[in-house]
User: Fold these one by one.
Assistant:
Number 1:
Amino acid sequence: MSLVSRHLEENGIPTVIIGSALDVVEHCGVARYLHTDFPLGNPCGAPGDILSQIGIVRRGLKLLEEAEGPETTWRTSLGWRGGDEWRDEYARVDDSNREELRLRGEKRRQQQVAAKASGETRAPMISEV
Amino acid sequence: MPGKYDVPYIQRTRDYYRAQGYEKDYVWAHHDEMPFTPLPKPLRECRLGLITTAMPDTVEGRAKRQVHASMSTPTPESMYTDELSWQKTVTHTRDLGSFLPLNHLRNTARAGVFESLSGRFYSVPTEYSKRNTTDKDAPRILELCREDHIDVAMLVPL
């Protein structure tokens, strides 16, 4: 998505990204980024929390309006209600799942070979995290 | 108890791929130059387009990993998000307001913060191949934004 944002900016359309993967967006380099420090999936606010969702959208619009140069990152002040365990859990690799992941990778590579043979040119990132 | 820290997604993804037996690390896009376009006019006069990584929850949206344009009104009841790397063990994507804020944007436009929400919103697939994004999808999104006379864009990756 950062690459799409850059392409629009290069062609005269101002953009704001609202996301939750700070390092990925900043590594790519974009014009305006509003960071929501939540698990991936709900960058515009927690499910059911309408007031926060409205607040995040408004803040994103404010950033669009007020940024004076590229690489302007703002953060929302919200915290995830369920605690912080999700930070350690995302894509965790340890002895409890190492063998399962190895087998999953083998299966995925077989699927990739089959997809390529059928002419498929697109593939998503791994999604079963 | 884990504390608060910014999750290092690049490193986590690298380790996760390695654990699945991939020998070549994924290389994340990186640039030293940052493009920046200032607002062409006051926000209250701008038409806004919304761009998501979620696909339409239709037969075509589920089957085809490509750019899609969908009507903004009425807000769809659901979006297809299964192939995206969001944290499925701790949250869900059944509330569109949490990742595709069409309703909130429509109401904000009514309040006069910006001029209007584009009649269509756009889906762009997350891609392992950066070339597919830069050579095909990003130019297609630009075309759609121009067709719909969009002044500013809000991008919301899951």
Note: The beta strands of chain A are 15-19, 32-35, 72-75.
Number 2:
Amino acid sequence: MLAIAVIIFREALEAALIIGTVMAASFGIPGRNRWISAGVGIGILGAFIVALAAGEIAMAFAGAGQELLNAAVLLLAVGMLAWHNIWMARHGAEMAAQARQVGEAIRIGARPLTALTAIAAAATLREGAETVLFISGIAASADETILAMTLGGLGGLLGGIVTGGAIYAGLLRIPLARLFTVMGWLLLLLAAGLSAQAAGFLIQADLLPALGDQLWDTSFILSEKSLLGRILHTLIGYVARPAGVQILAYVATIAAIGVPMRLMALLKAKAATTDRVNAS
Amino acid sequence: MSLPTIRHRALAASVLGAALLAALPSTAQTPPPSSAPATPSFTLTMRNRAFDPPSLDVPAGQKIELRVTNAETIAVEFESDDLRREKVIAPGLTVSIFIGPLRAGRYEFKDDFHSSTRGHLIAK
């Protein structure tokens, strides 16, 4: 039972951390709960489909199907985080100003709510499919009673959700005035980490050269398999033993999202100054 | 809004494109030239909750292919912290996992779904 709980916890943790972070980053956006829940629902449905088709997926693309699917889902999340972040760099300050007026609805043009749905769906799908395969294997092998399986499964899931909730609550302690700026940078690192993970899958499928199998090893300081290591792995892309191309993917993603984020913020600051000059 | 939405969207789209391209720099040029030496391949079978063989000798310093067969009746997950690889394998399937180039040493792996099932490879 404990073994089941531990495995389910590990699978649920990454999804829960990503969803908790996205929830904090979208604090105060009306309707965000509905859009994120829809994403989790789509992800769970997708997880069952992927698990059912696991054999076909694995054999697709000359045996690289599973890695390509994992990389595609990760990169979809990266793209959506890029969209969300660049949009927020433009509108975050207005949102913070409005959110401070308690009870005031936030009204800003088109919001990237579909991005939130897609990020939640991507996070749930990947880990969910593995969970379905694991649980169905346990059920088929009859190693455990149904009660032990259910308790272990629910316990692990609950543990993941509690950790995600704790991250959410912790992030919301950041003062509102600064919340969206801090979350922008955190989501940037999250996206970079997901890119590096995607690169890892493409190395495994021999679609990318490793460019150095293991450039350094910091696992003696922080193992990637410890709880803190796993949390940092998801949130900021900590990898104890990175391959060269993973570092490239990490840095390239920071540049590709961070530069437009800065540009948007600068443009906005300039526009604000011009407005003030015109008004006086 | 001082910027037209269209331009804003186009920027977001181009950033997304750039991010994807950045993450996939060389897929277009991956097929190795035919003169390149073939990647050595090693087979590993998972059956009766064990790896066969439990210990595998492989060359260090070059990329190698592991051909892993799941001869169990349920899904397994080949996982190795040392090799930084993980792959779910449906029952009855044989899959490829590319690893290395490795430094000389011992690398543990296991079935993450049944973590008492363990094996290792020795690179030299």
Note: Residues 2-279 of chain A form one domain.
Number 3:
Amino acid sequence: MPQLQSTLGDFSVLPISVPGVPAYPKSTVHHLYVRKNTPKIPTPDDDRSLFLTNVPVDSTHLHIRSLFTSLVGAGRFESVTFEDERKPSSQALADLLPAQAVRLATHAKKRKRADDEDAEHAREEELARLPPTWNRPLRKAGGTAVVVLADEKSVERVLKSVAKANKTGKYPVWGEGLPAQSTILGAKWLKAHIRLNFPDTDLVEAAVNQFFTVYNNREKEAAELAKRLRNEPDEDGFVTVTSGGGRTAPAKRAQAEEARRKMLEKAEKKREELSNFYRFQLRERKKEEEAELVKRFEEDRRRVDAMREKRGKFRPES
Amino acid sequence: MTSSPAKRRKTDHSDGAVLSDAISAAVRQPTTFVLETAELLAESRFDYERSLEGVDELLRRLKTSIEAIETHEAIPINDAAKKLKKAHGVIVPFPEPGPPKDSNYKLAFSKPAAFNVVGSYVSRTMVKVQEDHAVDMIVVIPKEVLQEKDYLNLRYFYKRAYYAAKFAAALQIEFDGVADLTFESLNDNPLLPTVSLKPRKGDYRIRVIPCAPDGYFPKQKLGATAGLIRSGADDDKKAHAPTPFYNSTLKADGSYVPYLRVLKQAEKSCPAFKDACMLGRIWLRQRGFGGAMSRGGFGHFEWSVLMALLLQTGGRKETAALSPSLNPSQLFKATIQYLAATDFLKKPFILGSKEEGLEAIRESGPVIYDAPRQLNLAYKMSSSSGFLLQQFAKWTHALLNDKSVDQFAPTFITKVNQPALMFDLNASLDMPEDYAEATGSREKLWTFGNKVHNVLKRALGDRAKLVSVHTAGLPMWSPRDSQRLASDSTVSIGILFDPSNMSRTVDHGPPAEEKKEAEKFRRFWGEKSELRRFKDGSILETLIWTGSTPAELCEEIVRYILQLHLKIPTYSESLTFYTRGFASLVGKPTDAAAFAGARAAFETFEKDIRGLEDLPLHVRQLAPIAPELRNATIEPPAPGSPKHAPKPMDVVIFFEASGKWPDNLAAIQRAKIAFLLRIGTLLSEAKTNITTHLGLEDAQLETQNLAYLDVVYSNGVAFRLRIHSDLEEVLLDRRTKDKTLDQHLRTESATLLANFRRLYNHLPLHNQMIRTYTTRFPALSPTIRLLKRWFDSHKLSSHFPTDLIELLALHIFLAPHPWPQPSSPAVGFLRVLLFLAQWDWRSEPLVIDTSSYSNDASDETLSKVDASSAATRLEAWRNLDPAMNRVVLLVCTPGDPSGTSHTTLDGHPSPSKVVAARMTALARSATRVVREKGTAIGLPDAGRQLLFVPALSDFDILLHLNKKALKATSRVYEHDDPNDVEPHHSSGKFKNLDTRTGEMPLPLATHPARLLLNQLATTYAGPLVFFQGSEDDATIGAIWNPLVSRRSFRVNLLGNYKPVALAEGRKRKVESESESSGEEEDDLVEVDREAILAEVARIGGELVERIVVKGQ
């Protein structure tokens, strides 16, 4: 059946036919939206990748691979990255890097971190990661993914075959030809989750240890960096003055707060001793009290007015 | 403080009029109440011009037509009645017993001596909400047709009835087609038939009341002890039983005009008198009181006369008790105080100086004696209604002295006499048909009710704070009907338990030595009473009861004693109890032991933890935060077994303050894991009966709490331990306030901080608070459980933090006004529903105020919750977030004055606005049902079916889960391979089978059904809202969010969308060949419902049995 609408904005609409399951026997059509990938920050693979949105929530790498295989045949699909996977790992990295180091690193604007250093950090962090509790995470409903294909030509072929599918009404089938275990959700999936909630303690211990190794190293690095920076003028010729090189321990902070509180208390006490001492104070206090009284009265009146506006507040229930 | 005149002058001229208003109002009492009552009066004022239009004209016509009635000489009574029937078809409403057939008593008719309009029509004190508006006109029977001896043997009342019949005859001709004419017993007093005229236009009645001339009958002969109904011919005065009711009726019938004068004088001397009368009328009405005997016999008339008399007398040394310069609300309060403080049931309450002796005043019922007019104002009251009135006055008085709560609404707005909301035990009893004992001309039913009251009150003793017996009123009847229709002969019984005595199973009577007392006790209790010897050597008369709950005990006693004294068969159908409906919904009496067991297990756990020696930090506190450990779960806590995964109870552990925690949030979380691992190892080394499992949270961020430790005892009790780190809070707080950070990071930190505070600060406090109050109020725990059951059955629970539901229940115990604290779960539950129905959470915060109960020092550390600051805070939230995306309900507790820790989870309001509105709607319809059904809601079927059956048709989609599959899913063993879904891993599957027999499954904090729901809810947060009751509820409801059904296309829309144009385009193609319209339509998409449902079915797999879509 020919379609009137095969595009939506700059997306091509790829309808996927979804066979019914016992709980919902109706077979349905899912709409996937495809376009050439044009990210704001270009990467070398952009020319041969596609951007998908509205991916089904139960998508896996296998699902997407089989979908593209059915569109353009085998051998052209390279990889898929889902939105939740694409989340910059640098966020977690930044969290992991001791806070001071991050701040100081941004100070040294020109400092370029070599790519391999980044990769090294990522590897370290991967080891410190705790085991996942879901063996098959659900995708966000309406989420996106980026598919990398073999070459530029494949991209064109995919788009062409999408248009063809629209025209002929022969839609690719979701999850067709996949091995049974890769489609499993439901009871086994939840069971696995319950089991994965309690990982092997050795694994966890190793991850925690690895974390602290990295953490301690980085903290040391940061301290050294801070020390170095103390004597180095930045591009405008200013030298950043930092305190003592060490961190301000929270204990010290607590002490400072304590001291502040004591000081305030002292001042309060002194003030109290001198209140009711002069006549003008008495007079002023009285004035304040009166003002307070008037304020309260007005407030009450306002509240009653507000109650009146709401119906039924003054009508006894029957 | 003293101030010199000079100073005063200075302040004076700076003041405005507002100040003097404010001062005069605030000095004497809280202003709000005064302003509110003023508003209430303004709102309630009755529009006489409009509603009673033409009444004066009607009254004039009435007078003329009565005056025109032909007079006649005395003729025998029976002849007169016959003649009237023959001429006009009117049957003379003689009071029972009617005049004997052979009576030679004679009746005459001559023109009435006077006409007078009395009552609230003349004093203009009617209010809008009154049930019926009546204008009373008295018609004085002339002296010449009466004889002095007429006070004897109902003779006066025969004449009075004849007068009423004559009026009816005349009026039915005069007002034919204009008004409907009936007879009614004035104030349900069978002695006083009255003609009632209801104009076809207008919503009011005119009552024509024949009455005796002022002071015609000698009052000294009408004392309470005089017996005026004398049967037979003997004249021995002493032989006649006293007829106080008859005597008072006779006196009252001649006192209309004197009381009119009393009221007029009060109105003149005290400007606020009328308004105070109206307040009194509203107060009485909300409590079901009225002048009629079936409504307690204390109405507006009695109230205003009492107040008028108190303005003259009643104080010390015969001075006036009330000052005429008081304002209406003060007059009202003072009168309430008078009623609360005076025990007019035990001792006659005498106003003014009496001349006669006390014996002439004393009666068995309540006495409020007006000495100058020698009348007992309370003569229509029964002792039951006397007690009730006094209780109401006491409760209101207590309320008016409590400045921390809203005084106004409970006093005047709430409908108080709803038996289902008021009494712990309601029952109804049909009067046996052969019951014939009627004393002193009162109705048979009234006498019966009074007797029931007296018997029950004595039998229940201090178990009951209040025993109320209520009988129906007398019906009206048409003048042409030969006497009255049979009235409803049911007696409603309401009993209010005393929590401290209600569960007693053994009653001790007097010791055997006190012969007289013992004999009395034995006579009252019959065979039930037996002599028993007790440990302390005393030998007492004793009663043993077998019931296990207060309601059962009470029912047992009532059934027994009614059978003994009133010959009501024990299991008679005429006696119905309305309590069973709710009791069965919240478990068994043994549940208390289960809760105590859980608590004991926790104490063992605490000891085990504190006993660990090699912990790097010293344990400061171990705080439970699980509902099982505060007596608040629907099902009593049950330990795990090989068949049931143990359900861990949450506990948080606090260590001494330490500088060793790393200065980084993520590092703190990892350090906690290391810590937990250490505790786990130490525990399982120290105790052989403990296994520990380190579990991972479903955390999205590294800075969140990442892990917990499940500690499982071999007996199946499990705890889930999380560690508190004081540095974490400091760091989060600092990050939240750090202006140099990104906004989204700060919001994230704020959410984490709120989660942290909820988990480690508020929940431990909450746990402690609820536990304390469940021991203080025995009915609190079952009320909470019943309420949770309600939230469950309406599939609201998945949206409400369990602690919030507990707070809702606690609230009505802390602020029960206008009632006392509930002492049974059913009452507590229904009152929470009432509260929820009326709670306007959009503009009112809920303040849990424990100030009146916290007398122990530990509570002083908690800041007192201030209602006005809570209101300010809510206002600020509503201004900041008018769409209520962040805060919906505001519930301020002493532990959390900010009010959001119990109503937001993870930065999202829970419940959300939609769900909160649904809660209100459900509570409203529930209260409506309760209102309609009355006490019958307590019947087993009614209570359950009407209140606890969900309206599944409200949901767009229903997911029916497979219970068997869920159960299987809930059992996961440590030896299970998490990846055994992969075929090449499943080779070891059968080997595992052997090892796992008899093994305990892994702890399960969240039931699989709830796990699935949570996954679905996060995945489809945009388009769908899911509803589930208890965690294992196998029917999940869902509704489509109407706000996100159709929108223009962009990347990253939440939910599954299909192009609109596509669908419409198809349709258009079919209909015609015309081209599609404008381009901009092309970018519209709508929620692809079918695709979403297909996804849901795939996610649920075999767990979802079927998906039912509304309308399909």
Note: Residues 1-15, 856-863, 981-989, 1065-1081 of chain B have pLDDT under 50 and may be disordered.
Number 4:
Amino acid sequence: MTQSPIDPAVYDDLKDAAGAEFVVELVTTFLDEAPGMIAELRIALETEDNDGFRRAAHSLKSNANVFGAHALAAPARELELTGTAQATPDVLALLERVDLEFVRASAALKSMQNE
Amino acid sequence: MSEAAAHLLIVDDNRVNRLLLSRSVELLGYTATVAENGHEAMDMLRARVFDLMLLDIEMPVMDGFEVLEAIKLEPALKDIPIIVTSSVEGVNNIVRCIDLGAEDYLPKPVNPVLLRARLSSSLEKKRLRDEQKTLLKRFATSEVVQDLQESGFKLGGRRVHATILFCDIRGFTTISERQSPEDTIEMLNIYYTLMFEAIDHHNGIVTLMIGDGLMVLFGAPQPLENSAASAVAAAQDMLAIIELFNLEQAAAEKPEIRLGIGIATGEVVAGYAGTKDRATYTCIGDKVNLASRLEGHTKRVSRPILIDEATHSAVSASQPCDPIGQVELDGFSKPVAVFAVGRSV
């Protein structure tokens, strides 16, 4: 299954609504903040912090959706719905997908900014 | 458009969301202040007035549900319209927000067109509510407004221990015959302003205004520690203010005002009477008749304030009163013990 990391329609709508310059700032903020959210997911798993786990997954999902990063939002949402911070094989697989999709999304966002 | 100046509070723990929401509302011409969690938001709400709040649900420290619950408990804050903006999962959570008092729900990422429509509609509703409140305050006392806001409007009364005060201008007809109707209205307006100030100061509420007559209730809808003492204190303030007013009237060669005040205390039935569409907060009971009769009796004994026995026993410790004796009053089968407060005129 290959999905484009960023939905161009969502990204263009965002640019139209908020302005291209602002979107550059917003993308930079997201790229700064997202690694922290992913790190929080792992920390919450280790400490079995259910609330922290759900919140970090929720934030990541929410921000991915802002830019149309559906492929990143999907595993984040599944993690959010898991509810408990248990390192099951499914959860670990989802985390790996999050890592991978974040790399792809951030590369796509960076290249879109330079367009 | 007056709503363009509206000041919004954006509450979201996520930086990207805060930036984007601020940008979106600023592009719509509103001003935005941001808070990073519910706790911070509550502090800001208590510190200044906002026209609307955009509230996230998933937040550390204090989440959106907790904010909605806390606001319900603070009467000063509960008028602010709240739109929940969240990508929280599950219809149950959205229903919970609405149940807790949120006006609307916008899923994230927030669609700018929807945001514009919801903000404008919520702010317009708030403007109308504020306008209604202002109007209500003009026609009802703040105690009645507070009672309406807390308990809602319901026809029907309840038994309360209260004090009734009737006040009337002595010889009003003669006064109004001696001056133009315009001058009389102007005099009445000043008179009412002065009387209301004294009454408000002692937590009474005016339940009736007819011509130059006033009926005032102490002890309902909000109970008072000693409704009789409040009523007598209000009556004395009323006389003192009118005395000052009379000095000005005399200087302007205009007619002076003399007051007659009757006060009675006991059980009355107080509540909203009327129809669903037009009602007034009032009270009934034989104490109401008694207060009115006592007021009428003031001209016969030339004492400005007459009170009944129940009022007398509630204030006699702190208030010198002269017994007038047992008086036959219209509508009362037995003579009634009457007392006069203060000096004779």
Note: Chain B has two domains: 2-135, 142-341.
